[in-house]
Amino acid sequence: MRILSGIQPSGEIHLGNYIGALRHWVASQEELESFYLLADLHAITVTQDPKALRERTLSTAAVLLAIGVDPARSALFLQSHVGEHAELAWILNCLTSFSELQRMTQFKDKANREGTTTLGLFAYPVLQAADILLYQADHVPVGEDQKQHLELTRNLASRFNTRFGATFKIPQAAIAPAGARIMDLQDPSKKMSKSGASPDGAIWLTDTPDAIRKKIRGAVTDSGSEVKASSRKPAVTNLLTIYSILSNKSVHESEQEFAGAGYARFKDALAETLIAYLQPIQNRFRDVASDRGEIVRVLHRGAEKARAIAAHTLDAVKQSIGFLPR
Ligand code: TRP
User: Residue whose CA is closest, atom 6 of ligand 1?
Assistant: First the structure.
């Protein structure tokens, strides 16, 4: 069994990314052959400053290593280091209809935000399909926001197979049921994100203890005072989800732990749990980030492992569609 996933090199990673997807990367590599890519080709679908992109790519790699992605077990690499991604994306572009890309909700959101739209942003989901299909991945652990892109990937794979003969494995999205969606601390109707309306809505994995205390204390709550998960209490439910995942308890156990405690005591406990959980990650991050040469070496080794598989798939694809051998 093989898994593949990716993340954009945005530099900072928030708790929603971690709980929704990244902690599963770490868990999966114990049993499965794992490929994890930093999607720098995807990053340039919106405007990037070159120096900032370089810095963010290094620090995203450092965070991934700090949370426990282990280069001895997994291939951790940059999308731009494996040329096969762009090449397969082109081929898949020629199988993708305009109208199916126009239906992609993430494209519509980003196009609205950016003002002008590039062909690259439009074709973003096709590149993502290439990322996945190159490795013949069985499972793709992603957050819920990537569901539509995974559906497109599956459709493109079966379209290709139908037209040209069995070439691609049809991948499954692996969306974790509990905590797949961590919401914004200031607006629990929106998911936690880099671009939330309030800077206090997201917890970064590198936040200091003081920042964490301030954000958790200031998190919005619902009317009433009971620490209980319910659809009428979206804010408290979100905090309980975070607490229960990080402390390895069920939501029900967590509710019992804070029965009659009130919001303030629950928030204090949540803040301290978060701080303790993140401390070893932050220590490792400082270590890893201080040796850029080593990060680059890890990424190069990862790309080598990845390329071996990607090149094999791309050769089969080219043969299937009728290109002459090189
Ligand atoms: N689009 C994904 C995101 O923004 C990142 C990504 C790129 C990805 N390539 C991938 C995720 C391949 C899964 C598989 O989160």
Answer: 6
Q: Which residues contact 314 (CB under 8 A, 6 or more apart)?
A: 84, 87, 88, 134
Decide: pTM greater than 0.85: yes
> Residue 26: which of 78, 79, 80, 76 has the closest Cα?
76
Confidence of residue 310 (pLDDT cuts 50, 70, 90): very high
Helix (H) or strand (E) holding 36: strand 33-38
From the CB of residue 320, how many other CB atoms can be counted at a distance below 10 Å? 17
> If you take atom 11 of ligand 1, which residue's CA is the nearest one?
6
Nearest partner of 222 among 188, 191, 197, judged by Cα = 188
Catalytic residues: 110, 191, 194
Quote the pLDDT of residue 299: 98
225 phi and psi, to 5 degrees?
-140, -5
241 touches ligand 1 (CB under 6 Å): no
CB 165 within 8 A of CB 316: no
pLDDT at 138: 96
- Domains recognised in the chain with CATH numbers: 2-179+291-321 (3.40.50.620), 199-286 (1.10.240.10)
Q: Are strands 74-78 and 33-38 parallel, antiparallel or unpaired?
A: parallel
CB-ligand 1 contact for 79 (6 Å cutoff)? no
Contacting residues for 271 by C-beta, under 8 A, at least 6 apart? 212, 213, 216, 217
What is the 300 CA–ligand 1 centroid distance (Å)? 20
Give yes or no for residue 133 CB within 6 A of ligand 1.
no
Determine if ligand 1 sits within 6 Å of the CB of residue 40: no
Mean pLDDT of 106-122: 89
15 Cβ inside 6 Å of ligand 1: no
- Cα–ligand 1 centroid distance for 5 (angstroms): 6
